[in-house]
Every structure is written in structure tokens, then in C-alpha cells.
Design brief:
Elements lengths: L1 E10 L2 E12 L4 E5 L4 H15 L9 E7 L11 H11 L8 H4 L2 E3 L2 E2 L5 E2 L4 H10 L4 E5 L3 H4 L6 E5 L2 H8 L30 H13 L3 E5 L5 H6 L10 H14 L13 E2 L7 H5 E2 L4 E2 L1 H4 L4 E4 L7 H5 L2 H6 L1 E6 L2 E6 L3 E6 L18 H8 L4 H4 L4 E5 L4 H4 L8 H18 L13 H7 L4 H14 L3 H17 L7 H9 L2 H6 L1
Parallel strand pairs: 3-4, 5-8, 8-9, 10-17, 10-18, 11-14, 14-17
Antiparallel strand pairs: 1-2, 2-4, 6-7, 12-13, 15-16
Helix pairs in contact: 1-2, 7-17, 7-20, 19-21, 20-21
Length: 508
């Protein structure tokens, strides 16, 4: 007998409908899966056989052939287990009461345990989104994935715990109610705040500017100056996520297997990889390609603590993603595209000992050692970083002060207001922030008066700024002006922007 049911396979964030065709015939007992399956799919034969037997259902001693169509798309992962098991049970007549018409608009997702339990699967949210677009009405999936799937409206989500439960449901012996999220909470919630940062007003101001313009930034300062603490709080002043942005972030985390059980992610991601990680962890990859840290930081912050400790090849791998805001991973099975529109934030010491320019502790490094240390950051990477902030260690009186610092919520109000100015200005240009300005746009939107041009010229002569620094200063000046509510860039905006070239002063 022949049965046909549906499942879905992911290629990056996109999905393709898969028809699972099961043919059972007389002959020497054999179980074969065709249709370009990977090793995990082939291993499903043992899982399916044990799951069916341990669900008190007799496994057929016949010739079983399963075809995963279309055969030209590679099938990867364990999420086909449930669909293939149901296909076999339908083919042997174990589910006689099944509604064939309803089956045509139903997909099955889930990995089987040997005892028949259905385990959580990765990538369920993008699968559900794609399924809805393809006209699917009902999705049978693991109970552990129910919250995630229920985010998508107008889909009948049937959460199941084991194979026997699915069989009883399809035979209409046991009805499983459609799952709905009860009292959904899609509000962001952070347990950190800029109010906890004592002093460092100049740094907080620079990070506010970075948040407004979407600028990548580096903090340079001695150990213990609070660089990491402030970097972690940057996400709390970025604008709230839109529903579409939250959905896209959740899709990426779902594929990566990092999705929390509470469903939709509403906090902007903050990713802080260790300096020892390989390129594949940062960019993405693996035998079965998964998003890397740059994609997991999508619409959030990617933070590199102690930037110079990262491998040079890892740092150079960031260049194209920072420019294109998308990464493509090539494999024999195809091309996988993942978005990576993130703010890059880094921290570093000014020298190997960490105390060059410190007011309290003397630096023991030679000029050659300092130069060699800073040269670990290439010009092309530095070219993609707009703001360089000098961070000094806070004084004792600041640390012990009872004065209440400005909260993240207060700072965010200003960020939101300035972001709206940019969105209105660039609505016809396909960009959303000042950081995305190209050279042609800079000429149009970053005009200077004669006084400001004179100041910029003097700064270039004094600090020996390179030509690439020019655009960086103008972009940041444009953001400072937006934060100030000014249509035109003024002298004070340029002056402040020049201050945020701390690393250039160390390297020139």
C-alpha cells in the first residue's frame, strides 16, 4: 500500500515542502529511505522501528520504501522521524479512520525516541512560517515546540508527546485540542540598566550616539574601567524591537537550537563570544550549516571583549558581514543565507600591559610593543568602526557617590526620537540609520559650514588622521546633530565627533 504525507525541510531560513511517500510491499523484509537523505535521516530507520514497537504497534515484516520528494533537495536532521513513522502506519492500515482531505493540508514535525516519545526539534518557527505561506493549515509537532509555533496566527497547532498519542488522534479516538498561547507576554525585559554605571558620563554619551546612528564602536581603556559593563547595557537603550524584527530573531535562534521555551524573543540579542572561538562559530557553518554569532546577534549587539586577543583571521572575517549585513555559507548541499544586521562593539587595552595613558598606573610597554599590539587590528576592519572611545578608570568618589544615574529608559527616549528623524530622512533611500550612509549620501546629508570645515582640517593636521577617517567623522557628526534636533551639522557637532577617534590618536 502507498501513503503520502507532508513535512518540511529548511535551507537557511527558507523552507521547502517535502512529500513523504511510503510504499509497503511483500518480499524480503527491508527498510530503505531515498530522496537525498543525510546520515541523520538514514539513522531514522532504527529510531522509527523501535518507536513503533515500543508503542505497542506491530512493525511490518515487509519491504518498506520511503521516498522524500523532491529528490533534488538534500534532507537533513531528525525532524522527519514522526512523518515517516506515520507514513508507515497509514500504509499498513494502522490508522483507518484518518481524514485524507485534512491530511493533505497537514505537516508532521518531530524526532522520535526509541520509547516512542517525541523530542523537541530545532527550526520549528521558520518551518511554521513557511508552511503557512504554502497553504498548510495544521501542524503536528512536539509539545516542547508548541509555544514557539503558536506565535504564527491562523495555524492549527497540535502538540503531541508520543507516537501513540498521534495515532489515537488521527484515528479520532483521542482528540488533541488546538494549542493557543495563554496570556502571552511579548514585552521586553532587561535585568540590567545604565543607572548602575557610576560616572563615565562621556562614555555613556558616546554609546548613546552609537545607539542613535547604529554606529560600530570600540572602547579603549585600562583594565577595570567598566568597558564590558557598559557594553552589556547598550541593548537596553536601543529602540524596542518591532514584531517583524522579533520574529526574524526568533527564527534564527530556533534554527540554532538556542530558543528559550517562552516563545517569541523580544529582547535585542547581546552576544559575547570568547576570543578562542573559530571562524565557523563567528560566521556560521558546520556539516549541517547553522547561523554563527554574527547572525545570532541580528538586530542586536555583537561584543568582542579584548579585541586584540582574537585571531587575526576571525577579525578579518567580519569585514564583509559588517558591510553587507548578510552572510552566505556555501556547502555541497547548497547556499545558506543568514542575516547579520548587528552593531559591532569591542573593547581593548591601549597596550599589552593595559595602562598606557592611565592617570594612576605607569605603563611598562615600549613604543614598539604598543605599536605591534595595536597593529593586530587591520585598517580595513578599523575602517568599518565609526566611534572610538577612550575610557578612563572612574575615581573613588564616583564609585561611592549616592547620586542616581540616568536610567536606560530615559536615554532610550532620546534615542527613539533621533531614530525617527533618520527614518523620515532616509525613507526613500533604503537605509535606516546614519551608519549606513554611502559616500554619495554623505555629500548630500553631511554638509559643513566653513567654520566646521576649518576645525576638521586642523584636526587632520594635528592627529594625522587618514582619509578614511573623514567619512567616519561626518557620519557621527550627523548623528550628534540628530540627537541635538538640528537639521544642519554645526561646529559643536563636528568637535564632539572628532573626540571619538581615540584609537587613531594611539596609532598615529
Amino acid at each position: 500500500m502507498l501513503s503520502k504525507i507532508k513535512s518540511i525541510v529548511l535551507n537557511g531560513l527558507d523552507g521547502n515542502l517535502v512529500e513523504i511517500q511510503t510504499d509497503i510491499s511483500n518480499g524480503i523484509p527491508e527498510f530503505e529511505i531515498v530522496g537525498l537523505p543525510d546520515a541523520t535521516v538514514k539513522e531514522a530507520k532504527k529510531r522509527i522501528q523501535a518507536a513503533i514497537k515500543n508503542s505497542n504497534i506491530e512493525f511490518p515484516s515487509k519491504k518498506i520504501l520511503i521516498n522524500l520528494a523532491p529528490a533534488n533537495i538534500r534532507k537533513e536532521g531528525s525532524s522527519f522521524d514522526l512523518a515517516m513513522a506515520i507514513g508507515i502506519l497509514i500504509a499498513i492500515g494502522c490508522i483507518p479512520q484518518i481524514d485524507i482531505n485534512k491530511l493533505a493540508s497537514t505537516i508532521f514535525i518531530g524526532e522520535l525516541s526509541l520509547d516512542g516519545k517525541i523530542n523537541r526539534s530545532n527550526g520549528v518557527l521558520p518551518m511554521c512560517i513557511e508552511a503557512k505561506e504554502l497553504g498548510i493549515k495544521t501542524i503536528v509537532l512536539p509539545k516542547a515546540n508548541a509555544n514557539e509555533a503558536a506565535i504564527i496566527a491562523d495555524l492549527d497547532i497540535i502538540p503531541v508527546s508520543n507516537l501513540k498519542e498521534v495515532v489515537d488522534h488521527l484515528n479520532m479516538e483521542k482528540n488533541i485540542n488546538r494549542f493557543e498561547i495563554r496570556n502571552p507576554n511579548f514585552k521586553e525585559k532587561y535585568n540590567i540598566d545604565f543607572a548602575e554605571v557610576k560616572g563615565q558620563e562621556n562614555v555613556k554619551r558616546a554609546l548613546e550616539i552609537a545607539a542613535v546612528g547604529g554606529h560600530n564602536c570600540i572602547m579603549i581603556g585600562s583594565p577595570g574601567s567598566g568597558k564590558t559593563m557598559m557594553a552589556k547595557r547598550l541593548v537596553t537603550i536601543l529602540p524596542e524591537l518591532t514584531l517583524d524584527e522579533a520574529m526574524e530573531i526568533t527564527k534564527i535562534h530556533s534554527i540554532s537550537g538556542e530558543l528559550r521555551r517562552d516563545g517569541l524573543i523580544m529582547n535585542r540579542p547581546f552576544r559575547m563570544p570568547h576570543h578562542s572561538v573559530p571562524i565557523s562559530t563567528i560566521i556560521g557553518g558546520g556539516r549541517i550549516p547553522k547561523p554563527g554569532e554574527i547572525s545570532l546577534a541580528h538586530y542586536g549587539v555583537l561584543f568582542f571583549d579584548e579585541l586584540t586577543e582574537f585571531n587575526r583571521s576571525v577579525l578579518e572575517s567580519l569585514r564583509e558581514p559588517l558591510e553587507n549585513r548578510e552572510v552566505t555559507i556555501n556547502r555541497l548541499s547548497g547556499k545558506f543565507h543568514y542575516p547579520c544586521n548587528f552593531m559591532f562593539v569591542a573593547s581593548m587595552n591601549p597596550c599589552p600591559c593595559g595602562y598606557y595613558g592611565d592617570n594612576e598606573k605607569e605603563c611598562k610597554c615600549t613604543s614598539q610593543e604598543r605599536h605591534r599590539y595595536l597593529r593586530k587590528i587591520s585598517g580595513p576592519l578599523l575602517d568599518r568602526i565609526d566611534i572610538q572611545i577612550e575610557v578612563k578608570r572612574p575615581k573613588f568618589d564616583k564609585l561611592t557617590s549616592k547620586e542616581i544615574s540616568e536610567t536606560s529608559a530615559d536615554i532610550r527616549k532620546r534615542v527613539d526620537k533621533a531614530r525617527q528623524i533618520q527614518l523620515k530622512r532616509y525613507k526613500d533611500y533604503g537605509i535606516h540609520s546614519n551608519a549606513e550612509l554611502n559616500p554619495k549620501m554623505i555629500i548630500r546629508f553631511c554638509k559643513l559650514d566653513s567654520k566646521s570645515e576649518e576645525l576638521l582640517q586642523k584636526a587632520f593636521e594635528k592627529f594625522k588622521f587618514s582619509a578614511r577617517t573623514y567619512e567616519r567623522i561626518l557620519k557621527v557628526a550627523r548623528t550628534v546633530a540628530d540627537l541635538d534636533g538640528k537639521d544642519n551639522i554645526e561646529f559643536k557637532h563636528v568637535a564632539e565627533s572628532i573626540q571619538y577617534r581615540g584609537l587613531d590618536k594611539f596609532t598615529n
